What we know:
Layout: H1 3-16, H2 39-46, H3 50-57, H4 66-75, H5 80-89, H6 106-114, E1 120-124, E2 129-132, H7 134-139, H8 153-159, H9 170-187, H10 192-204, H11 206-212, E3 222-229, E4 233-242, E5 250-257, H12 260-271
Antiparallel strand pairs: 1-2, 1-5, 3-4, 4-5
Helix pairs in contact: 2-3, 2-4, 4-5, 5-9, 10-11
Amino acid sequence: MDTTQELAAFLRSRRERLDPHDFGLPSRRQARRTPGLRREEVAELAGVSIDYIVRLEQGRGLRPSVNVAEALAQALRLAPDERAYLFNLSQQRPHNPDELATTAAPPLARLVADLSPLPAMLMNHRYDILAWNSEIARLLLDFDTLPPSQHNAMWLCLMYPEMRDFYVDRERVVREGIAHLRAAWAAYPEDQALTDLIAEFTTHDEEFARLWAERDVKVNGRGRKVMRHPDVGVIAVHFETLSPLQDPDQQLVIYRAADDESQSALDRLWAR
Length: 272
């Protein structure tokens, strides 16, 4: 994938989803052959030339400055996660490839173990699972039985047969995971392993390819998941994702039972 072409496609998709009526445009300008705002209207709202918008949307190698990126974000009414995505595509937040987390920081690995009996795991920006405790292995999957190349939460959800029907609301879980992964890809465009992973998913999984093409962007720091556990039945959990200040590329994910029935199911699972 190319960040310049993705920036062009993202700007077009955000422009086309806007409703001209929300901007109070004159009625004589409402006869439109394409959805959304026109390029000249976005240019006027952002305070840039029409030619600049055209060249951006044609992927002609422009890199918006911080001020222009902010103006475009306001003109297109981007949500906070979409704004961050635009800034990352504009390469205003470069990362050093040598600093990308591929192994768990030892203090964080110990913290994951100490969080028992709460299920917890440590991941990096590409959803690689770097450390886990026994509770989350019993809840999700025994990661020790898998080769390291398969220690990736998105890969398991999409490619591992035992996980295909694990989530009750599978499409929502996959959609949110893809939206998070897209944000990570823009933040780490130099991460070839992440690019290769997305290419693998796009090539081999129709569901991923369809949802990836929608260009949804959202960082999911907390939420709810409902799982069908083969031993104890349905379990609903709340998850919280924390980013350590010392190791911001690593993400600590903690699960908690969402209701009394789910807590009882977890207690039965731990007792096994």
